[in-house]
Fold this protein.
Amino acid sequence: MNFEPPASPRPRPRPPQPQPPAAEGVDAASLVAARTAAVARNRQKAARTALIHDLLRILGVVVLIGGVALIVHVKHQHRLEEERQQAVREAAAQAARAKEREAAAARAEARRAVERAEAAEKRRQEEEKKQALERKAEAKRQVEANRKRHQTALERFRGTVLELLSAAPAADLPARVVGETWYSCVTPAGRSGLTLYEIQALPGKDIHVTRLDEKGEVADVPLGEFNRLVSGSSYLLAKGTHCYYKGTKNWQMRVSVPAAGEKLDPSHEDFRDLYAFAARQCDKRSALSYEVFFRDVGGAETRILVLPFGTPFERADVVKGLQQSSARRIGAAALEARMNEGSLVVRRKGGAR
């Protein structure tokens, strides 16, 4: 595009003007002046027209340039706006990607946390299972140990000589020991009819009592509670080669002479629930025996028998005892009448012990 200013237009030739007739008497000088003024006016008019044309062309160029500049500016602004929007979109995309990365990282961390928690829970369950198995195994070992302890406590009675507790030396009593001593004690109670205790006695009356069970159950028993349990009960106390029996104080048995074929066992009546255990565990040799007295109608008593523990007697033994205790032989009829009228008194040998 050419932006050079256009050349000034040449005035178009005017057609020859008719000359006024001289006859009209116009002055030639006036005509020349008029003609000159007309030419000047025409020239001014033409100059103004040319100037207007030039201004219009310049204005058109300015408008054109302004339009081009406006178009360029609009396009530039549009491009800037697109670039800004693109930057916004990219920033939003980056923020979205960053947010997604953060969310993915959070999900990954959550998964790792869940995996760690599951692994920890699995380890905890395995540890609990292991500990439960260990506790179960330990409980089983403890039960077996307790059963062996129960058996050992029972074995203390095996082969012991049965004696009265009142005949025991002072050093054999738990409260009088001079060194650590272990005892076993059986009382008539419990599910099996008997209760077994193990006693550890130390000098200075430091005594520990434990209740044992054939199922392996073990329980410590305070000494005071144990003393209350046995204070009014019979029991057997094993120590070393001795099995000491503590029975009912001042025990005795008053019965009629047994009928023919009938047997009486004083030790069974005395020991009651402890009898079968003592007969089974203790040695057949026993220091405990029973004296059988015949009491006549008048109250006189005659000792007719001495029976070791576990020995029953019958009517024939009474007859024999009465015959041996009499200075002269008694007739059968008189003896029968005497036995029918009298009675028998049985006591532990040695008196009220």
